[in-house]
Amino acid sequence: MSNLDREAALSVCGGRGFVVAEPVRELLTPRKVQLGESTEVRRLLPNLGRRMVGAWCFVDHYGPDDIADEPGMQVPPHPHMGLQTVSWLHEGEVLHRDSTGSLATIRPRELGLQTTGSAISHSEETPRSHSRFLHGAQLWTALPEGSRHIDAHFEHHTDLPQVTAAGLTATVILGTLDTATSPGATYSPIVGADLTLARGTETRLPLEPDFEYAVLSMSGEVHVDGVPVLPGSMLYLGCGRSELPLRAESDAGIMLLGGEPFEEEIIMWWNFIGRSNEDIAQAREDWMNGDRFGEVKGYEGDPIPAPKLPAVRLKARGRVR
Asked: Fewest CB within 10 angstroms: 14, 115, 223, 274, which?
């Protein structure tokens, strides 16, 4: 999924200097962003107060939207570099095309994982024949320096491992949770999991004390370490936790995101992640000139042009504002 802001701001993320080294309960509120012509998303990362959770650097939550008589998601071809995109659905379908030739229809609880390396372009659209509702999340992880120039590729995993307990089913999207490990490729210590909880469930989820974590609410109401988290909001939890208390006030769905705090400072602008202003400027020039990012074949429509770069260079500001 693309960042379609018409004026994309430069920002520096990463570095351990602003990692909360102890458990906290910091509720993040979303910013509403229009995605294409028909989809509005709630952007949780980057946030006014926090830019990263481990390697997770971008989180959009959308829906549930009634698209029975609508085209649904329509995101034309656009570029990415230096990151992974994670497509995750609770309802609906998304058709993925990219410049490596990949073509896949992603359905609920299936992992669409795009590793961009130094250059890829892709499109995302709701198929013409589709379900009534569209509901999901789009997430990015930052690739570390040693992996950010690898060959671009796409993975589609339809059968993901699960961890179950009374009233709880956890599907492991990336990394390892408890005893279950996702088949999706990762390039830094990270975890992502989708949790379904039945009303009245009280449980404790095992965590890694060296990871920082956040919980994104997808549906229902869950009290996370005593804090009510409602759909479209995210609770940042810091580090130093070996378990996480959860209590479901209704049938609910949440996403657990975590990882070792990302050591490197990165620049994230539009759909690019780099290490310098020059990285970003070159990527923009290449996209606008039709170089490096390839062609998405089969999409009916023009690619998205890049916004203008800001007139000033970015100064490093760390992980939080």
From this structure: 223
Tell me the per-residue pLDDT of 94-152, one tens digit each, with 9 for 90 and over.
Answer: 999 999 999 999 999 999 999 999 999 999 999 999 999 999 999 999 999 999 999 99
Measured CA to CA, the distance from residue 239 to residue 214 in angstroms comes to 10
14 band by pLDDT with thresholds 50, 70 and 90: low
User: Mean per-residue pLDDT for 50-66?
Assistant: 96
Backbone torsions φ then ψ of 212, nearest 5 degrees: -100, 150
How much is the pLDDT for 8? Answer: 62
The closest alpha carbon to 117, from 272, 267, 259, belongs to 272
Please list the residues that pair with 234 across neighbouring strands: 28, 216
Closest CA to 262 of 54, 93, 47: 54
Q: Which two tokens stand for residue 116?
A: 């961009």
Q: Considering only CA atoms, which of 269, 271, 274 is closest in space to residue 312?
A: 269
Return binding residues. Answer: 78, 80, 122, 124
Run of H or E including 235: strand 234-238
Per-residue burial over 79-109, b = 16 or more CB atoms within 10 Å of its CB, e = otherwise:
bbbbbbbbbbbbbbbbbbbbbbebebebeeb
pTM: 0.92
The DSSP code sequence of 126-181 is --SS--SEEEEEEEEEEPPGGGTTSPPEEEEES---EEEETTEEEEEEEEEETTEE
Instruction: Check whether 170 has a pLDDT greater than 50.
Output: yes
Residue 294, CA atoms < 13 Å, CB-side half-sphere: 21
Using 50, 70 and 90 to split pLDDT, how confident is the model at 49?
A: confident
Distance of CA 179 to the CA centre of its chain: 23
Write the pLDDT tens digit of every residue in 252-262.
999 999 999 99
Write out the binding residues for Fe cation.
Answer: 78, 80, 122, 124
Name the amino acid, one letter, at 258. Answer: G
- Residues 120, 114 contacting (CB under 8 angstroms): yes
